[in-house]
Amino acid sequence: MKLATTHIASALSLAIAMMVSGPALADNPIVIKFSHVVSDATPKGQGAIKFKELAEKNLPGKVEVQIFPNSQLFGDGKEMEAVLLGDVQIIAPSLSKFDRYNKQIQLFDLPFLFDDTAAVDRFQATAAGKGLLDSMKSKGIQGLAYWHNGMKQLSTNKDKLVRPEDVKGLKFRIQASDVLEAQFRQLGANPQKLAFSEVYQALQTGVVDGAENPWSNIYSQKFHEVQKTIAYTNHGVLDYMVVTNAKWWDGLPADIREGLTKAMEGATAHANGLAAQLNERDHQRIADANRARIQPLTKEDVAAWRTAMAPVWQKFEGAIGADLIKTAVAANQ
Ligand code: LMR
User: Fold this and answer.
1) Is 94 in the pocket of ligand 1 (CB under 6 A)?
2) Helices in the chain by DSSP H: which ranges?
3) Hey, whose CA ends up nearest to atom 5 of ligand 1?
């Protein structure tokens, strides 16, 4: 009896020693959960898939990347908290979803700030743009990269959508952003913050009349099937910051962090190289589907939207910083 007890005790301590000290751990890859809210067929979806491919190639047997698209694991109300709690390791929220952590990132939501995603790209490559990636470390968030989606278009369930007066009194779904809220209030419309996963139903049931999205999100979520008109406004940008838990990232073994950094660089080049093409493809698919009508706008129409939304800039200049806005404007040239 005594002998059996001693055997059990030593087997147990061996098992514990192996769990704590390593050989067993070395056989287990580090699991990296990458959670996001859009479909695989979008620029972000494709970027996540490329990241998995490159990370597992660079670090064979050492990491396993699990992707959870379409708000399967966490919707956008919860994903940031999930990263901070360590429930997932990587997310890529739109830049509209960071204002609780750094008000300067509100910059990206200013209407008609960037002419196109090439200008967004140039701004992000400046020292000020890169600095934003490291700006939330004290809050536990480390930015790893910027990924593009595309320029946003306005859509409604009305036939007429040409000038700002056409949206007066309408309800619009917005992302959780105070700038976007101000933008729609400026137009005399009623903004409602809703998670991305709730948008289709909200549009379908008339909880809201309209929304603003890039073509890839409209097509992959079938928003064009529950809207009547999409105006080609290009009035703002939808772009992402890929982020991770700063403590987790800093605590990784150096070779793993290096392999993941390289994988992220490759995935970023891939996603950003594809973004314009996927948005153009989905723009065409929406036109071909012949459900929502795409309303082209004249220069004068666009100027009217620009003028109507312009006061939003002054409202947020203090929080964002005039210099940062200047640097972003300069990226248009
Ligand atoms: C949205 O909520 O509209 C977007 O941020 C969704 C996304 O991730 O593209």
Assistant:
1) yes
2) 2-21, 23-27, 43-58, 79-85, 117-124, 127-133, 178-186, 199-205, 215-220, 246-250, 254-289, 299-309, 311-320, 322-330
3) 94
Q: How far is the CA of 37 from the centre of ligand 1 (A)?
A: 7
Residue 242 in contact with ligand 1 by CB distance below 6 A: no
Domain that holds residue 240: 95-330
Closest protein CA for atom 3 of ligand 1: 196
CA of 196 to the centre of ligand 1 (A): 6
197 in a structural domain: yes
Over residues 281-313, the pLDDT tens digits come to: 999 999 999 999 999 999 999 999 999 999 999
Number of domain units in the chain: 1
Per the structure block, which two tokens stand in for 184?
Answer: 């729609």
Helices 178-186 and 299-309 pack at an angle, to 10 degrees, of: 120
Which atom of ligand 1 is nearest to 149's Cα? 9
Identify the CATH number of the domain in which residue 196 sits.
Answer: 3.40.190.170
Report if residue 200 sits inside a domain: yes
Quick check: is 11 in a domain?
Answer: no
Backbone Cα Rg of the chain? 23
- pLDDT of 9-68, one tens digit each? 444 444 444 443 333 345 799 999 999 999 999 999 999 999 999 999 999 999 999 999
Q: How far apart are CA 215 and CA 226, in angstroms?
A: 14
Q: How far is the CA of 59 from the centre of ligand 1 (A)?
A: 30
pTM: 0.92
Residue 96 CA to ligand 1 center (angstroms) comes to 9
Between CA 96 and CA 64 the distance in angstroms is 29
Q: Is 221 in the pocket of ligand 1 (CB under 6 A)?
A: no
